Amino acid sequence: MTTDRKCPCGDEAVRDQAAWWFARSRDGDLSAHERASFQNWLDAHDQHAYEYRLLQSLWGAADLLPKARLEALCQADAPTSLPVPRPIARRTFVRYAVAASLVAMVVGSGLYFGLSRQPDYSAEFATVLGERRQVALPDGSVVDLNGRTRINVHFFSASRQVELTEGEAMFSVEHDSSRPFVVQTGNGSVTVTGTRFDVRRDPSRTLVAVESGTVKVKGHSGSGSASSGSSSDDDGNRVTLTAGLGSSIDANGKVLPASAINTAALTAWRGGKLVFNDTSLRDVVLEVSRYREKPLRVAEGKVANLRLTSVFKSDDTDALLRALPSILPVAVRTLPDGSQEIFSK
Predict the structure, then answer these.
(1) Comparing 71 with 158, which gets the higher pLDDT?
(2) SS in 3 state form for the chain?
(3) 251 and 298 both lie in a single domain
(4) What's residue 92's pLDDT?
């Protein structure tokens, strides 16, 4: 994306619009019409998306500020002169005011300068179906990309920003407490200073699994509940994960409770393997479809609840389909569109 081409409506107007949309989206109750209008606004000009992402970064930077300072911001008098496209409800305006106060605080700390200027390093990496790729970043971090994955990387003096637009990636982050490493996925973010973790972005959710170190998972909605077995932040929609724990962010930006996971099985894709341990056939089909040109389906009913325990190669999912009828009481058929379906014998 280019950011040097100025929007004809002016920088200040774009920033005001971005701030308004950011406050509205944080409420998590956009109507279908509003979501369409928001997307149209993002697509209208490069600078729109840039200013909106900048606000996301600033909001995420709140993690760097002391709790007492953040509480003071929330108690501060709300500014009343910020222009907005149309009247907004009190709840939304208060959120807008707090966000604006937070931006002011970040500007005062010097962090805004590090985020708002052009990045020190930018790159885009992508893989196609069946491809796995490892890339080294200039800070010493390493990213393993699964097939059909795309990331955008932007390093600033005060933060390291990665946008996972699709697919799955394993991040081995070089420790740097002065520059947090933030992975954005649309419905949430993952923040670390140095650790090893896996992030997978599906159409309806984001999955996070931690192999070592600590990561902070945050949803982009204003709702959510604190989870047991994890360390939760004040807004109730964040969770801190340590090694062996995983969590997910749903389509509405709600962070779900942490749970123990089999990290080795979840990250076996790095070795070209699919590991299933008492996995429902429904979930097997969802996973296998990520490695096939045509989606794999399973018939409705009891067959979808059958359980599978086995290991297969991710680059030869046809072998899985050939073996499946000898493992479970199922058969496989090819549908008119070229996809395949598993059904009960």
Answers:
(1) 158
(2) CCCCCCCCCCHHHHHHHHHHHHHHHHHCCCCHHHHHHHHHHHHHCHHHHHHHHHHHHHHHHHHHCCHHHHHHHHHCCCCCCCCCCCCCCHHHHHHHHHHHHHHHHHHHHCHHHHHHCCCCEEEEEECCCCCCEEEECCCCCEEEECCCCEEEEEECCCCEEEEEEEEEEEEECCCCCCCCEEEECCCEEEEECCCEEEEEECCCEEEEEEEECEEEEEECCCCCCCCCCCECCCCCCEEEEECCEEEEEECCCCECCCEECCHHHHCHHHHCEEEEEEEEHHHHHHHHHCCCCCCEEECCCHHHHCEEEEEEECCCHHHHHHHHHHHCCEEEEECCCCCEEEEEC
(3) no
(4) 47
